[in-house]
């Protein structure tokens, strides 16, 4: 059965006078640049480059920069179909809405469960990284020695406050933090280029003999994870100005910037040590590779700033993921799947404040549990909690690509967007994203450092959560058919 193309929103009673509830998020608040800041900040480019790019070099050799370009091209291919469907998905549910409208409501609700689970996994796990980096940086630069949970709890409070306040404030904070972390990497790049690198600039990284090697599966898996969260452009539809134009533009800009910037900075770090020595340096101490380069080419003062900016880079990602989670929960609440209280919007700030409190409380509980059992904040808490989120988002991307194909095949008489946008590009993206998901699952040891038992247990969480969502959809269909009929049909553009 064809689903309605311009659905109507479920009717809700108006908020009572004197309450802090509003029926809508803050309309027309975000432009293209604002949404790009949210998406790119979630990727945490400084953290990805300083913390992960050396591992990509270690496993894939000097050809690793090409992995970031390749994944960028793949996601641009995905964006072709994703943005073709954007004007017909007038909902803040992003993957949930796309998959429900393309593959059916049960798959859509399963996707919603996976999205909420995955973003929580990504965000809460990153509090371990935030606590670790903040603790070591404060100790190294200020001589302040406090345990990592103190910083993690402080980070939760800051993220909650910024999420509670106006989306405009969050956008401004993210813009400032993202510009700062990007600038420090550009500063390093400029110094390396001016000084000609370790032994003259070369393009060995792009030579076929260095690209098509057996070890490239490692960098490809790490590169795929580096783009996590770019589809969040669609989550901000209700808050975007002219969303039919803003969301597609922000999607292409975010993917294009990340792909080119990642590849460029990864190439720069190869030049900093030379094509013949870069892999050896990465093998000796990957965690210090970027800091060593910064000290050598710019100076110790820049290295100190870089250490601070890694902390703020993680904080920016935490805020971006927090906003994504609360808007998914808001979408489910509006459609009466989640408790209605979670969908309350603050009358002054226009934020889904109850969902924000719930998400922050969950983060406090998880951080407290891991702190009490004494796990390492980075190698265990961050990596183990974060990894299921990476797998879940990759699965959702593949499903969303196939959903685009199904949606336009079902509605081919009503819409003519061209076969390239509605069939060729999304189908190819779906196949390639499925292959990328399999690759990541096979090389999960690169993310967790754990054995097969732990790794496959983490992978199994995604299908289990997806199945739980489908089971709930079947139950809603039996017991609340009116709610089931309106899943993924909320029209946030309606006045």
Number of helices: 20
CATH topology: Amino acid/polyamine transporter I
Give the tally of structural domains: 1
The CATH homologous superfamily name equals Amino acid/polyamine transporter I
Largest pleated sheet: none
CATH architecture assignment: Up-down Bundle
Report helical residue fraction.
Answer: over 70%
Protein name: Amino acid transporter
Main location: membrane
Region (Disordered): 1-24
Pfam family, one: AA_permease
Helices and strands in order, then pairings?
Elements: H1 32-43, H2 45-51, H3 53-60, H4 64-85, H5 95-103, H6 105-142, H7 148-164, H8 167-195, H9 208-211, H10 217-226, H11 243-273, H12 278-284, H13 289-297, H14 300-334, H15 353-372, H16 377-410, H17 419-442, H18 445-448, H19 452-479, H20 481-485
Subcellular location: Membrane
Pfam families: AA_permease (PF00324)
Transmembrane segments: 35-60, 66-89, 109-134, 146-164, 173-194, 206-230, 250-270, 308-330, 351-375, 381-408, 420-441, 453-474
């Amino acid at each position: 059965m064809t689903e309605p193309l311009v659905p109507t929103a479920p009717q809700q009673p108006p908020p009572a006078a004197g309450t802090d509830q509003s029926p809508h998020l803050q309309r027309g608040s975000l432009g293209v640049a604002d949404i790009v800041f949210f998406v790119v900040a979630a990727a945490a480019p400084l953290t990805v480059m300083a913390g992960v790019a050396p591992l990509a070099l270690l496993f894939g050799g000097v050809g690793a920069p090409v992995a970031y370009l390749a994944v960028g091209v793949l996601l641009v291919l995905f964006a072709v179909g994703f943005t073709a469907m954007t004007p017909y998905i007038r909902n803040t549910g992003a993957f949930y809405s796309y998959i429900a409208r393309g593959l059916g409501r049960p798959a859509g609700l399963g996707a919603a469960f996976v999205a909420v689970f995955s973003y929580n996994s990504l965000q809460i796990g990153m509090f371990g990284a935030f606590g670790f980096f903040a603790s070591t940086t404060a100790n190294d630069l200020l001589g302040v020695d406090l345990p990592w949970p103190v910083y993690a709890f402080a980070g939760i409070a800051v993220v909650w406050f910024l999420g509670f306040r106006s989306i405009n404030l969050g956008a401004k904070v993210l813009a400032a933090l993202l510009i700062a972390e990007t600038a420090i990497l550009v500063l390093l790049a400029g110094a390396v280029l001016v000084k000609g690198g370790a032994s003259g600039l070369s393009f060995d990284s792009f030579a076929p003999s260095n690209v098509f090697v057996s070890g490239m599966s490692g960098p490809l898996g790490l590169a795929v994870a580096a783009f996590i969260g770019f589809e969040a452009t669609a989550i901000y539809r209700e808050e975007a100005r002219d969303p039919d134009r803003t969301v597609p533009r922000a999607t292409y800009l975010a993917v294009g910037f990340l792909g080119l910037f990642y590849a460029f900075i990864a190439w720069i770090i190869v030049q900093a040590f030379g094509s013949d020595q870069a892999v050896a340096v990465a093998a000796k101490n990957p965690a210090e590779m970027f800091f060593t380069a910064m000290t050598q080419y710019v100076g110790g003062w820049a290295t100190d700033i870089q250490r601070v900016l890694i902390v703020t880079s993680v904080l920016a990602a935490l805020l971006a993921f927090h906003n994504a989670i609360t808007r998914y929960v808001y979408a489910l609440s509006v459609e009466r799947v989640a408790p209605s209280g979670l969908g309350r919007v603050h009358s002054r700030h226009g934020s889904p404040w109850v969902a924000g409190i719930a998400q922050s409380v969950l983060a406090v509980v998880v951080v407290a549990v891991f702190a009490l059992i004494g796990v390492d904040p980075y190698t265990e808490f961050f990596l183990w909690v974060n990894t299921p989120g990476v797998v879940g988002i990759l699965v959702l991307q593949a499903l969303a690509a196939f959903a685009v194909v199904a949606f336009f095949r079902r509605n081919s008489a009503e819409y003519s967007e061209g076969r390239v946008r509605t069939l060729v590009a999304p189908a190819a993206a779906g196949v390639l994203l499925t292959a990328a998901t399999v690759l990541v699952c096979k090389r999960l040891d690169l993310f967790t450092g754990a054995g097969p038992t732990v790794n496959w247990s983490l992978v199994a969480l995604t299908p289990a959560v997806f199945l739980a969502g489908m089971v709930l959809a079947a139950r809603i269909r039996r017991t609340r058919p009116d709610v089931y009929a309106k899943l993924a049909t909320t029209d946030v553009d309606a006045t």
